[in-house]
Amino acid sequence: MLDLKALSKHFGGVRAVDGVDLQVEPGQVFGLIGPNGSGKSTIVNLICGLFAPTAGAVEFRGSDITALAPHARVSRGISRTFQNIRLFGQLSVWQNLWIAQSSGEPGGKVAFLPRWLGGSRAVRDEIDRTLAFFDLAHKAEELAGNLSFGEQRRLEFARAMAAEPALLLLDEPAAGMNAEEIEQLDNRIRRLREEGATILLIEHHMELVMAVTDRIAVLNFGKKIAEGTPAEVQAHPLVREAYLGTAAAA
Ligand SMILES: Nc1ncnc2c1ncn2[C@@H]1O[C@H](COP(=O)(O)OP(=O)(O)O)[C@@H](O)[C@H]1O
Ligand SMILES: [Mg+2]
Predict the structure, then answer these.
(1) pLDDT the model gives residue 247
(2) Which atom, in ligand 1's list, is nearest to the CA of 39?
(3) What percentage of the chain exceeds 90 in pLDDT?
(4) Ligand 1 lined by 14 (C-beta under 6 Å)
(5) Which pTM was predicted?
(6) Can you list the domains of the chain with their CATH numbers?
């Protein structure tokens, strides 16, 4: 599904991403972890096309997309959330999903259309299902800017799903969440996996990553230092060192 080939991104002297090879198979929930500043978000930006790599290539569903613009990658099925919430605060929850919705419906969308005018019956039903899945149905008409922090995070996730992506990139979806919200996030990721979704999950919250992923790659200073099942990665001495300092190697 996704194949990163010797991918590098340098910012001046900083090797944010340094020769990373990585493959995500269809139906996998793949975890990408590493200390702060290890290059995780930069990899997401390279996959989405917000950054052009210094070297290497991004392949997606068998074709090289390294030179494609971000919107062209969205049409090919790559969708993402941001580490910091980026919603249209002056649009309703429903409208935020409507403009993210990709299926069918040619032509430009008018973002401010009322709910009952936006889109075909099928599209409206799909949006309502997505809202229900993310427990936001009762907030459909609310302005996104008026939602609580937890609700905004759910809407950000819902919006990424509304595009019906072949590959979903989640950049620290649990950041700032309380224990109950993380539990709900855990459940949602599991249900999406059961439905066959392919997800690249970047996350600091180790319990969540270990619980919901099939495979994990570990970054440190822009390099992949380990990869394997959650159990293999947890036992890896380099990983323990990167996370806990050399004392943990003892
Ligand atoms: N746009 C940028 N310009 C310059 N340096 C950047 C930029 N984005 C990221 N970096 C640097 O690249 C490194 C990796 O950052 P990042 O990918 O955000 O790490 P992570 O998401 O793992 O915390 C850091 O040293 C960061 O300061
Ligand atoms: Mg980051």
Answers:
(1) 46
(2) 17
(3) 67
(4) yes
(5) 0.89
(6) 1-77+167-174+200-250 (3.40.50.300), 83-164 (3.40.50.300)
